[in-house]
């Protein structure tokens, strides 16, 4: 299970699931048209994706 952790305050976030199918979201990344790599959590069944969680004004780091 992927855990997201804030490197600033230590806050952590566990399992995130899709509201449509209730499958656990999986970590992935996409590249924008400008060439920036953005980390996302997406539904393995193709129902969509969200930007990885943020805390203290920065992306939380994924830990396994």
Please summarize the sheet with the most strands.
Answer: 3 strands, antiparallel
Number of helices: 0
Uncertain spans, ≥5 residues at pLDDT below 50?
none
Order of helices and strands: EEEEEEEE
Q: What structural class results from the helix and strand content?
A: mainly beta
From the spread of the alpha carbons, the general shape counts as flat
Q: Tell me the total number of β-strands.
A: 8
Instruction: Report how far apart the termini are.
Output: 6 Å
User: Mean pLDDT, nearest integer?
Assistant: 90
Nearest-angstrom radius of gyration? 12 Å
Oligomer: single chain
**Domain module count:** 1
Trace the largest sheet across and list its strands: 2-1-8
The percentage of residues in β strands lies in 35-45%
Helix content: under 10%
Overview of this structure, please?
With 64 residues, the chain is mainly β. It has one domain (3-63). 0% of the residues lie in helices and 42% in strands. The protein has strands at 3-5, 12-13, 26-31, 37-42, 49-51, 54-55, 58-59, 61-63. The strands form 3 sheets. The protein has a 3-stranded antiparallel beta sheet with strand order 2-1-8, with no helix packed on it. Strands 3-4-5 form a 3-stranded antiparallel beta sheet, with no helix packed on it. The N and C termini lie close together (6 Å).
Question: What is the secondary structure topology, with strand pairs?
Answer:
Layout: E1 3-5, E2 12-13, E3 26-31, E4 37-42, E5 49-51, E6 54-55, E7 58-59, E8 61-63
Antiparallel strand pairs: 1-2, 1-8, 3-4, 4-5, 6-7
């Amino acid at each position: 299970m992927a855990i997201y952790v804030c490197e600033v305050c230590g806050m952590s976030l566990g399992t995130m699931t899709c509201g449509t199918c209730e499958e656990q979201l999986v970590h992935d990344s996409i590249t924008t048209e400008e060439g920036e790599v953005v980390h996302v959590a997406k539904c393995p069944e193709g129902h969509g994706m969200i930007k990885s969680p943020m805390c203290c004004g920065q992306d939380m780091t994924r830990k396994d």
